[in-house]
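re: ur question from the group chat, yeah i did fold both. here u go
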Amino acid sequence: MFCTNCGNPVNEDKAFCINCGNKIGTKEPSKQTQTNAPAKLPKTVNKAAINGKSVVVAASLVIVLAGVFFYWKSMPAYAEAVPYKYDDVDIFSEGLAAVKFGDKWGFINKSGKEIVSFKYNFVYNFSGGMAMIEEYDGHDSAQGFIDKSGKEVVPLGTYHIIQNERMFSAGIAAVCISKCGFINKLGKEIVPLNYDMVGISSEGMAAVRFDGKWGFIRIK
């Protein structure tokens, strides 16, 4: 018989191979290099740490936003924009307000800046970029129009103006001397002063009275 380890012939009555010392009937395990180094494990993500950081960031953001909100809520809902120095005021119209200082009227903007100086006995609100001005001497009144820069487009006393809240809303205003007609924003007469009375222009039409009767004219 042969040694199962080295392959040399051996006597059957021998317990061990005389060549390699292997026990008869067994095979010595092959000599292979073995290491006790632990197997490398795949890298794993520390989800708990990431989740913890996310919670901290979210909580910080909530705290910041809450602080901004409560700061905004604590701020006053108003702010003083124009000093208390006027004797009378009117509402803002087209960004300007009529205000009285002493015994004269002018206009200021929303920052309180004087746009039209205080030199008129009375002024009306802006409409269509124009405002009526008026001077009164106790007996007679003189009227005119200014633009938003304060320029007198229609000088005081040029016409008697038919005052209404929609003056120049359609780009024209009704005026009279002995008869009535309409002017545009340049002060030019676009409807001759031929009528006994004129009304408000609306939708391109204006009511007029002629020889005691009313009708309408179309204004281009």
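okk and heres the other one u asked abt
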Amino acid sequence: MIKIRGNGEAAMAPDAVEIQFILERRDRHYEQVVQASHQQLEQLASCLAGEGTLLTTNFTVDTELETVKSPNGEFTNVVRGYVARHYLTLELNLNPDVLDRVLQKISQCQAQPLLTIRYKVKDSQHLMNLALQAAFKDALMKANVLAEASGVKLGTILEINHEEFSVFRGFSTTTAEVQPAEISTQTWVLVTWELI
């Protein structure tokens, strides 16, 4: 029996752009911060009307505390206000003209979101499958080399192990004037063969 780990990597040109937004509002009162956050979201949605579906990935309202010292010398936390954060994404097909138009709209939007642009592959499972195929071929090549060097032959596969582990690497930017890099992923398989 021989057990070999094969490593695989695959890369594809990105075919989509994901714009990630953070809308943030602060206020001393909870109701006002939630209302201001809702208005900010409406402003952004209005600015991006017709460009795709704006999706919420997370919404939080956190308490902002300040530690103060009381007259008797004890420290206590006092609520100073609230901060609402709305996390959103907008996915677009990879088209520099469309991205330019969307970024122009965002720059003129009253919502003033923080944003990050991430290039991606729409079908990430296909990219992972290519990396898995490469990992298996790598394991098979290594096993054949070792079997030949030891004067035996590979028999049937007894076991294949693979845990869902992958690292997707790509290019992120906040400007549309760059050429996006390929998106790549790495993975591994552990293959056990009988020896004959």
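fwiw on the second one: The domain at 16-120 is CATH 3.30.70.2970 (Alpha-Beta Plaits). Residues 124-150 form the longest helix (27 residues). idk if thats what u expected
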